[in-house]
Specification:
- By secondary structure, the chain is mostly helical.
- It is built from eleven helices and no strands.
- It starts with 5 loop residues before the first helix and ends with a helix.
Length: about 350
């Protein structure tokens, strides 16, 4: 009647609702990012909460177990900061003071070591490096200014350092109840589907977050020990940078390698070839042995999709988008596989009944 089509109206309504949700997500991206980091932090501490729950007396409430774990986490992070923070800060201060001298083209020729077969080309290499450094100086200033503004912006949002643990505490405390209420609100048809989706997402996030932590710790430990033994300048600082960048898929480790080699070269480190061989050997062990072992479940996305996701994440949200691209792609895959399996199961049941 009156040219009104109910089916088309439903399609338009669904499309409008999806568009509104996407717009709301983009508008609230800063708040949602804080929630995402709180979720990641929750998955990091949740195994410890479960361990305390198993060994504590039954009369002790769950809130006490969560509080014990959070106090322990604060002590661990504080001890790590006291153990390594002072040295890393001193090395960072020293590097920042020496950076103009290290990048001075007039001193690069005598300081950067070259293999014997390139010694005859040192003058040409010096001219090329001088041109590149001079050309890069004009580009480095705007980048440094943006970086400084970013640091100032982060400093004004230090409240997040308190807010994320608080949200994480509440998430761990309320998660079982919220999960049960959500599943109970669904019908008998949808509940099994969403129970499976939540289970797969739980496995995905727990594996991913803990694997990132272990990979970062392994990189920091191995790099700091080997760099110190080899006499690499600013060894603990470079190891810390590599450990932090390990959480950014693909781009982070590659950036860490470039930073380490550049700082070592400009600082006059004479064993660059051995340093490069070690980094390549470690990356092969990390990428082909340790990483697959830690992410053996949940995070199973083809390399092609990962690369596309990294590029899309960079376009949408920069470093944050790159960091979240892999778990988002894995979550989308989980939803697709679960919905498809549920649809096939319903179709088989319908055909069998007919």
């Amino acid at each position: 009647m009156f040219g009104f089509d109910v089916r088309i109206a439903r399609v338009v309504w669904t499309g409008s609702l999806v568009a509104f949700l996407l717009f709301a997500t983009y508008s609230l991206r800063s708040t949602l990012l804080v929630v995402v980091f709180a979720v990641f932090f929750s998955y990091l501490l949740y195994p410890l909460v479960e361990l305390v729950e198993r060994i504590k007396p039954v009369r002790v409430p769950r809130t006490v177990s969560i509080g014990i774990v959070f106090v322990f986490a604060v002590l661990v992070f504080g001890a790590a900061g006291a153990l390594f923070g002072t040295t890393i800060t001193e090395e960072a201060m020293r590097l920042s003071q020496q950076l103009p001298t290290l990048l001075d083209p007039a001193n690069i020729s005598a300081r950067v070591p070259l293999p014997d077969f390139l010694e005859s080309q040192r003058a040409r290499i010096l001219v090329f490096v001088t041109e590149q450094v001079q050309a890069g100086t004009g580009q480095a200033l705007p980048i440094a200014q943006r970086l400084g503004l970013g640091v100032m912006h982060a400093a004004t949002n230090l409240i997040y350092l308190i807010l994320i643990p608080v949200l994480s505490f509440l998430l761990i405390k309320e998660a079982p109840l919220l999960r049960a209420e959500f599943l109970s609100s669904l019908g008998t048809v949808s509940a099994p589907l969403w129970r499976g989706i939540l289970f797969d997402l739980d496995v995905l996030l727990s594996k991913y977050v803990r694997a990132l932590l272990l990979l970062s710790m392994a990189t920091f430990t191995v790099y700091s020990l080997v760099f110190s033994a080899m006499g690499v300048p600013y060894s603990l600082l470079l190891a810390g940078v590599a450990g932090l960048l390990e959480v950014i898929p693909f781009v982070g480790p590659l950036s860490a390698v470039i930073i380490i080699l550049c700082v070592a070269a400009f600082s006059g480190f004479s064993h660059l070839l051995w340093l490069l061989i070690f980094i390549i050997a470690y990356r092969m062990f990390q990428d082909y042995v340790l990483n697959p072992m830690l992410m053996s479940e949940g995070v199973e996305v083809s390399p092609l999709l990962i690369i596309v996701g990294l590029l899309a994440g960079d376009e949408l949200a920069g470093v944050t988008g790159i960091f979240l691209s892999v778990p988002v792609l894995a979550a989308i895959k989980i939803l697709f596989v679960r919905v498809r399996s549920s649809t096939h199961l319903i179709d088989r049941t319908t055909n069998a009944s007919n």
